From TrEMBL, chains A, B:
Any one Gene Ontology molecular-function term assigned to this protein's record: DNA binding
The species this protein was found in: Sphingobacterium phlebotomi
Signal peptide positions on this chain: none
Protein name per Swiss-Prot or TrEMBL: Winged helix-turn-helix transcriptional regulator
Top-level division of the source organism's lineage: Bacteria
Length: 123, 123
DNA sequence: TATGGTACTATAAAAAATGTAAGTAATGTC
DNA sequence: GACATTACTTACATTTTTTATAGTACCATA
């Protein structure tokens, strides 16, 4: 998947932080350029690979695949393959995945508010 | 600060995402290995550089400085320097910084729950 | 036989984030 | 004058993440 060196200091630090801070643990799972937005789209229901791709205009297929695989490995979403040609694969949030909703919504609201606050600062 | 190339695809993608998805915008601000945990500690009140460092056992001074500067630039916290020797610098969340509390707490709870869920899977 | 659609994979390169190690400034105390 | 304290800064190395580009498999239809 992603190539993490289990001997690196960075790896050790992430582990240690995740062990004692559940919010850092969560951030590791939800980290990555597109993970949050993918989940955000999936909050409305299952989507196919190609549909997700359309919603994320500039993502490469490789990145989409990587992020989906990571989220799948963390049991945030589940992947269903239909034995068809051309292939059809659907992605859907799991129960724990859907529980991200209040957090994602919270971040959305906070982000909007932060934008407004920043607009009033003149730095 | 951090060296972002404004000509890179990555920069363009982040901008575009942040523009249309406030949750991605928020994630950019709160991103970084230690940012969330720093904010988490600061939810309990102002702390000095050295105190923060003690709370984050493996962080290097360079990383701590970088993350604090980034958070300051985003107006998540404010930095107060006291004209003393040896120096004394205090960091405190701003109003919009304190508004991260429900999000951080939400992530904390979700993280704990996710850990429990994962413990029951046998992969 | 050629073409098209879907969901990928492989490989390389570029960019970004993080870590390492050393040094700095100012001043009070020994 | 040497040393300790605090909050950094700088130069450089390494690791991790993201992007670029080009494939692949499958079968149905033209």
């Amino acid at each position: 998947m992603s190539q993490i060196k289990e001997t690196s200091t960075n790896y050790a630090n992430k582990q240690a932080l995740a062990d004692e801070c559940a919010e850092a643990y969560a951030a590791n799972i939800m980290g990555g350029q597109w993970a949050l937005v993918i989940c955000s789209w999936l909050l409305n229901g299952k989507l196919r690979f190609g549909e997700l791709k359309k919603h994320l205009p500039n993502i490469t297929e490789r990145m989409l695949t990587l992020q989906l695989r990571k989220l799948e490995a963390s049991h945030i979403l589940k992947r269903t393959v239909y034995a068809q040609v051309p292939p059809r694969v659907e992605y859907e949030l799991t129960a724990i995945g859907y529980e991200l909703r209040p957090i994602i919504k919270g971040m959305e609201e906070w982000g909007e508010k932060h934008k407004r606050v920043m607009a009033t600062q003149k730095d």
